[in-house]
Write the structure tokens for this entry.
Amino acid sequence: MGTHPVHQALTTDYVKTLIQVKARQVTRHRGFRPGDRDDIEQDLIAHVLKQAHHFDPARGSVNTFIDRVIGSAIAMMLRDRKRLKRAAGFAAISLDNTFVGRCRSHMRVPLSHVIQEGHLPRRRGAPVRDDHEQVDLAVDVAHAMEGLTPRQREIARRLANASEAAVARDMGISRRQVRNAVEAIRQHFEQAGLRESAPTRTARAWPA
């Protein structure tokens, strides 16, 4: 017997990149950290292998099958993590009442004296990105843009430097059509774990 097409597809650059992109996107959801990415990638690969016997070439390409399986696996991950948070799986702590290490006078130091300003976004569940993560984010945004329709991509690009009214006027469409497109784009980016990069009706910081 030859190699199963799903197993073979897992070694291709397309699927490897797909898994890496999807894993990075998952780490941007609340409850996950950038350090979880390797584990998430392995979980996604394991899920694809587990579901490989369901692949039917008569119903679509192997890449489409893998993309669908990965999407299902990610939905389960997010659902399970949300359930764990609701069940008090993540306990809140006080920065003033939590102590770490000892200073030279042998006194314990409150965490509030140690944490830096750059760490504060983590308290709100927001990601803290270094230069490498910024590059990854740019790649993920570009990947998400490919999943939009041509009109949605055009609207997204124009919103970087113009208002909804200006975009509607320049494209010869109604403001309602622009608003509907913005909402569809926003939902698409949220599903990709890129909520902070999704355009809003007043946002201007959008990739050109």
